[in-house]
Amino acid sequence: xxxxxxxxxxxxxxxxxxxxxxxxxxxxxxxxxxxxxxxxxxxxxxxxxxxxxxxxxxxxxxxxxxxxxxxxxxxxxxxxxxxxxxxxxxxxxxxxxxxxxxxxxxxxxxxxxxxxxxxxxxxxxxxxxxxxxxxxxxxxxxxxxxxxxxxxxxxxxxxxxxxxxxxxxxxxxxxxxxxxxxxxxxxxxxxxxxxxxxxxxxxxxxxxxxxxxxxxxxxxxxxxxxxxxxxxxxxxxxxxxxxxxxxxxxxxxxxxxxxxxxxxxxxxxxxxxxxxxxxxxxxxxxxxxxxxxxxxxxxxxxxxxxxxxxxxxxxxxxxxxxxxxxxxxxxxxxxxxxxxxxxxxxxxxxxxxxxxxxxxxxxxxxxxxxxxxxxxxxxxxxxxxxxxxxxxxxxxxxxxxxxxxxxxxxxxxxxxxxxxxxxxxxxxxxxxxxxxxxxxxxxxxxxxxxxxxxxxxxxxxxxxxxxxxxxxxxxxxxxxxxxxxxxxxxxxxxxxxxxxxxxxxxxxxxxxxxxxxxxxxxxxxxxxxxxxxxxxxxxxxxxxxxxxxxxxxxxxxxxxxxxxxxxxxxxxxxxxxxxxxxxxxxxxxxxxxxxxxxxxxxxxxxxxxxxxxxxxxxxxxxxxxxxxxxxxxxxxxxxxxxxxxxxxxxxxxxxxxxxxxxxxxxxxxxxxxxxxxxxxxxxxxxxxxxxxxxxxxxxxxxxxxxxxxxxxxxxxxxxxxxxxxxxxxxxxxxxxxxxxxxxxxxxxxxx
Length: 751
Hints:
Blueprint: E1 6-10, H1 15-26, E2 30-34, H2 40-46, E3 50-52, E4 59-61, E5 73-79, E6 87-92, H3 93-107, E7 114-117, H4 124-136, E8 139-142, H5 149-157, E9 163-166, H6 168-176, E10 190-193, H7 200-209, E11 214-221, E12 224-231, E13 245-246, E14 251-254, E15 259-263, E16 270-273, E17 276-279, E18 287-296, E19 299-305, E20 310-312, E21 315-317, H8 319-330, E22 336-343, E23 347-355, H9 362-375, E24 384-389, H10 402-411, E25 415-417, H11 432-445, H12 463-477, H13 483-488, H14 492-500, E26 508-514, E27 522-525, H15 532-538, E28 544-549, H16 551-560, H17 569-583, E29 589-594, H18 596-610, E30 615-621, E31 629-630, H19 633-655, H20 659-679, E32 691-696, E33 706-707, E34 721-726, H21 738-746
Parallel strand pairs: 1-2, 1-3, 2-5, 7-8, 7-9, 9-10, 10-11, 23-24, 27-28, 27-29, 29-30, 30-32, 32-34
Antiparallel strand pairs: 4-8, 5-6, 6-16, 11-12, 12-13, 14-15, 15-18, 16-17, 18-19, 20-21, 22-23, 24-25, 26-28, 31-33
């Protein structure tokens, strides 16, 4: 190490970091990756002569480097050892070049590549992508705010990128939001997937979304990067569960103990362990890993780690090292053990087990492990699970059986404690927009109750879940959120406030009232909570969603300010149709609405049909058209408003506490909806499709006033009109006990 100049470079997610590493390669210097500028341990171990601390720098990287392929030391990368002792991996220029050459050959890449690098540049996967692209003369984009499916969509659409690289954790986020992609997905030419496990179904889903792309997944580790490659776009069936075959001069085999062994020019032959340089391979050049696997027809199938390492979003943690740090922090020597557990989002989470006899408070343990994980670059409280046992499972020699801990947790054979800070008193959502965001937060953070003043990050959110959050909030509300919005305004109350200031934004809140079941969703228009009892009564086999278009409020405000003459039914129906299509891409569709919501349901169905969609049924809940009331023309409008929108007054009383605000909201809705009904004309506009009209048996009609049996809908529809009369008044038909009979009646028409 003293033969060459050894430069320490602080590992940072920035283009400046990439450039510093590559410039040092070109200068013939040996690069040591440091955790910070004060990383005295690694500086001393490797005889670092100077330290480079890169600046923050994001965006496009288009520098071209002619990398050396000499068999001389290029880099020392530190990784966690199985016993908690970090080891320095010696990577030569020859080994690094072999990886890039094989990778580019398998991916069939050329200099036209413009890649969105979705993993940090200071991860070995990310740095390897920059090296491979730079060697070809291509361009690479490093996003400032991390992996973002919406940003990817927009950059594909504009033609800025044609390639993406990311680990399976991030691809899962994208696949959960695949509905945001359209024809721009066909522009993607290249994809590389990191070496975490990704199943056959997930890969098939990725192939289906990006059908024109060459998709490659690799398997490897720091000591032997990208050993095997799987051409996902060419593979099928069970082979998609594999991580591919060895390519070029690389070789694989399985040892007698079931461990994956690797040989080739890309393998690090030496490592720095406990201050000494030792061989990393056997006499025949084979590296025996701690990964378990099998080889079938030349394809490698990864079967987990033999050494119990915790792989959390690509960051590998040694349970021994974490225990050591935790013991020091808590000033203890025993009574606590750490193991991995499977986490759907991050791959692994951190399971902390405590013996009941220990006097330590669980909250104290939780706080300490969260602080320790921050030092390893993990800012996610949700991955920490605490369990309490009578005694830790150990071997005859006293060694903790980590796999047994994981099994106990998965089987539920232990007390589980979930500690997430809640920094404020609970404040319930006050309107449908806030309610839609609360629902998203609760589902994502797996919390039973989230208030509008709760801080996202104090509840366990981190940078990774923030990416998912902005996507889910946009899908639920129709409003575009940026990652920066959440960091700057981390409560629902603040987010709603800044979005309501933007008068150009149109939002629609889609809130699941009942998500179980495989039936077609029933979309209930113009309100959310008002339909909850109906959703509950329909049972667990019928998904039900409530929708509220926020522009209703904006247009009502305009009416109050004298800036608009009416609330357009057709315009609102357009917004409702957009919201429904955003949630459910293809029909058939099932719509329902009470009072004015029923009128909107018919108009929305008409719009969906005009777009070629299939609408199976529209359910009108006591929706009376003006021509369905038999009295003088002047009285029709006045009485209709009282009938159709009286429920809104009751609804507003449920969600408003202040007397003045309640009165203002009631008056505002009445005035705006009255104008909408006055402006709406059904003449000549016939809806062709099945309509189910539910009539309330109890009607409070004035003297000399009666209703047509069909409420006027026979003049507005040409399809099948089915009429049922149910017990209850206008609002009572969807409230207990009458709603149970209503639900039983509606099940005959729902698919």
